[in-house]
Amino acid sequence: MVSVFKLSRIRNGKTNYRKRERLLIGRTDFVSVKISAQNVYVQVLSPHRSGDKVITSAHSRELLSFGWKGSMKNLPACYLVGLLLGRKCEMKGLKRVTMYTGVRPFTTRVAACLKGLIEAGISSPHSPEVLPDDDRISGAHIAAYANILKDNKEAYESHFSGLLSTGINPEEYPDHFFAVKKVVLKSEPRRDGQISTNPKSPERATS
User: Fold this and answer.
1) DSSP H or E run through 99
2) Is 74 helix (H, G, I), strand (E, B) or coil?
């Protein structure tokens, strides 16, 4: 029986060397998406044999400075983080990047990040059918579910307790999403490479 030697990073499921090889040969700047139980973190990196170099990045916690009060890891948040990353790429003069998932699966939330990046004006190879539709991105499904639960006050308040504590009515989630999206798109770059925001939070549609 012949044994086949495998590199430790392959054995431990940490690196897909075929994908890495294509990145190195193509010398293409790439996007990495990491989604934890609480947040979303995206980076644009330049591949090098000695190690990847971070060009720019965006974290869902940054959305707070744009007035975001929703989840830090759902589809709308992933899209907004991708949009913010796209703005930062624009400031760095980057026009094209490649989504790189490595050994991680290409999930709907990763696709939402990619959609935000593309709609910020950054080119990236993709199939349009893998991107979430606009209703999902804006949180319309959240508003629809809130309207279903609304007649059951106990279930409604229990399910949306976190969101209600921030002062956002879940039925108005899409309005809040579009308000924050507008702020991200209109914000100006700073000398330190970050995005300056309007000190006023976007108005909530509560009427």
Assistant:
1) strand 98-99
2) coil
Residue 149 lies in a domain: no
Across the chain, mean pLDDT equals 86
pLDDT at 7: 46
Domain that holds residue 43: 15-133+183-195
11 to each of 32, 75, 189, how far by Cα in Å?
21, 32, 43
CA distances from 53 to 3, 23, 30, 57, 124 (A): 35, 13, 10, 11, 19
Q: What is the mean pLDDT of residues 73-102?
A: 95
The one-letter code for the residue type at 103 is V
Query: Which of 28, 33, 68, 103 shows the shortest CA–CA distance to 181?
Result: 68
* Cα(52)–Cα(24) distance, integer angstroms: 10
* Burial profile 154-187: b = 16 or more Cβ within 10 angstroms, e = fewer: eebeeebeebeeeebbbbbbbbbbebbbebbeeb
85: in domain: yes
Which pTM does this prediction carry? 0.85
